[in-house]
Design a protein that fits this description.
heterodimer, A: alpha+beta, 5 helices, 46% helix, globular, B: mainly alpha, 3 helices, 1% strand
Chain lengths: 82, 136
């Protein structure tokens, strides 16, 4: 089970990666044009990407941005479909 | 370890070596001739080695760029604080109508450069250890 991501922005990168034939972090990094360390930081919730990278990630998975990222308010209500 | 982290460690090693050699040379050669030790800083030019880009490989992205910019900002801030404090301290050290020795100015410049590099390197390493935070 992946660790709880800190901050209000949660992402489904890890889950989506495994649902896409266990795509490796390196493969995803190459597809979106970042380093593997950035994918690691993203999955750990330690890095919030730029809008451009968010769209590139969503496109790499073939889904919408809101399926990859979800904004959670302080009261725990989620925004987005993740 | 990312190229930026390797470069930060390399910068720290160069600065530490330079200051150690300087400390060893000053008693032997005197403060004027010992300045040659600052030539070791020239090794920093080899930092580009860490950023060589193999075909098809990404060596730095928006997160690395964000970390680098923040590290530079922190280093600039620390530099200006120290610069202002040094300016304020001069009248107390040399008197209100005194003169700052040329050698003090030269050493001050080199040490300020060393401080800038050290702060930038440490800020880079700390940010990577914390995860890199958010994009701008």
């Amino acid at each position: 089970m992946p660790p709880e991501q800190p901050g209000p922005l949660k992402n489904q990168v890890r889950r989506l990666r495994f649902e896409r034939g266990e795509m490796t972090q390196q493969e995803l990094a190459e597809r979106v044009g970042v380093t593997r360390q950035t994918i690691i930081a993203l999955e750990a919730g330690k890095y919030t990407p730029s809008l451009l990278l968010a769209f590139r990630l969503a496109r790499a998975f073939g889904v919408g941005v809101e399926e990859v990222f979800r904004y959670e308010d302080g009261d725990g209500t989620g925004r987005g479909s993740g | 370890m990312t190229p930026a982290q390797k470069n930060a460690w390399f910068s720290l090693a160069v600065v530490a070596t330079c200051l150690a050699v300087l400390a060893a040379l000053v008693p032997m050669l005197g403060p004027v001739r010992a300045q040659g030790a600052f030539g070791i800083m020239g090794l920093l030019g080899f930092g580009w080695f860490f950023f060589r880009k193999p075909p098809g490989e990404v060596v730095a992205d928006e997160r690395d760029d964000q970390i680098r910019r923040r590290a530079m900002l922190i280093a600039h801030f620390v530099f200006w604080v120290v610069f202002l404090l040094a300016g304020v301290a001069c009248p107390f050290l040399y008197g209100p109508t005194g003169a700052v020795p040329v050698l003090v100015v030269v050493y001050g410049l080199w040490l300020a450069f060393s401080l800038f590099l050290t702060v930038a390197a440490v800020a880079t390493l700390v940010q990577y250890s914390l995860g890199g935070d958010d994009a701008a």
